[in-house]
Amino acid sequence: MKRINEGPRWSLSFITTGLMAAVMAFSLVGCSSHSDTPLFSASGYVADQGIYRLWREDDEQHRPQTLINIYSPYYGKDTVITRYEYLNDHLHLIKESHAASKDLGITLRFDSEGNVSFMQRQLADSKEKLSADDIERLKYQADKVLNLSNTLRAGNVRLTQGRWRQGVITTCNGEPVTLSLNIRSQVWLAKRAAKANDKLGLAWLTAPEGNELLLVANEDFCVWEPKQGQLN
Predict the structure, then answer these.
(1) Which parts of the chain span the membrane according to its record (predicted)?
(2) Is the dihedral of CA 23, 25, 30, 31 positive or negative?
(3) 5 belongs to a structural domain
(4) Structural domain of 216
(5) What is the largest CA-CA distance in the chain?
(6) Tens-of-pLDDT digits for all 232 residues of the chain?
(7) For residue 230, is it within any domain?
(8) Which of 38, 50, 97, 122 has the smallest C-beta neighbourhood within 10 Å, fewest atoms?
């Protein structure tokens, strides 16, 4: 996975302040019943410094099973992939990796009582334990990401990835789509398309209030996009 090219620092629909955000401009209200909640879902949002994409798979009891959070910064930093796994509705694993630095990462496991059973920070040439502050920070982030996933799903905010090629947009499944985008998104896409030799990778959000272009990059997101049944 390559580093995402810079996108605009604005968003008319999904402005948030990092993982602390709780209010989304797509008016996320109400809660979906279990019968209406999909076992597999994808969503995302815009933060101050970059883009977050979320893929989630639940068990048959609609409890979170796996949640993958991909953070793509606007400037200069590596894309960060964080994987959260749950057992019986309890956080079991946090695994953080870097797309451009395969030798860097964090692994944190919990037992059935919520106690740390394994911890490790992988550095370029060594390994070290996590501090108590590190552990609390990672647990806090995990809780925030899960709550945000619940909110986005309740508001029917859905992430789709696909390809642009010679003016035609298709999803990763090859389905042609027509996106109704605001002017700024249209300009952004047009500028990138003018410089593209062949095709671009796209990611966008769809909600009852409309579409939001999330990412445009010289990368085929479909190559690595998680699918239902592949998260576990």
Answers:
(1) 12-30
(2) negative
(3) no
(4) 18-223
(5) 55
(6) 443 444 443 343 443 433 333 333 333 334 445 667 889 999 999 888 899 999 999 999 999 999 999 999 987 678 999 999 999 999 999 999 988 877 789 999 999 999 999 999 988 788 999 999 999 999 999 999 999 999 999 999 999 999 999 889 999 999 999 989 889 888 999 999 888 777 899 999 999 988 999 999 988 999 999 888 777 6
(7) no
(8) 38
3-state secondary structure 106-153: EEEEECCCCCEEEEEEECCCCEECCCHHHHHHHHHHHHHHHHHHHHHH
SS3 letters across the chain? CCCCCCCCCCCCCCECCHHHCCCCCCCCCCCCCHHHCCCEEEEEEECCCEEEEEEEEECCCCCEEEEEEEEEECCCCCCEEEEEEEECCEEEEEEEEECCCCCCEEEEEECCCCCEEEEEEECCCCEECCCHHHHHHHHHHHHHHHHHHHHHHHCCCEEEEEEEECCEEEECCCCEECCCCCHHHHHHHHHHHHHCCCEEEEEEEEECCEEEEEEEECCCHHHCCCCCCCCC
Within a domain: 173: yes
Total number of domains constituting the chain: 1
Domain-embedded: residue 232: no
- Look at residue 203 in the predicted model and tell me its pLDDT: 96
**What phi and psi, each to the nearest 5 degrees, are found at residue 169?**
-105, 130
Phi, psi of 70, deg, nearest 5: -110, 120
Q: Alpha-carbon distance 121 to 114, whole Å?
A: 19
